[in-house]
Model the fold of this input.
Amino acid sequence: MSETDAGRAPSGHRRTARRVTTAPPPGSDPAPSAEPPRHQVDDNDERLRAEKPPHY
Done:
């Protein structure tokens, strides 16, 4: 496959992006800060071990 064929579908048509991109809503931050850590790795372990599905 040559470099000119790399962006083409097997049918010979040029591939286009499959995901839709939309403009950000007005007033949104173009470079948001990272979300602060809120939970420990094992915070929910006891609750998950205690709960049983309703069919048991």
Q: What stands out?
A: Residues 21 and 30 are 15 Å apart (CA to CA).
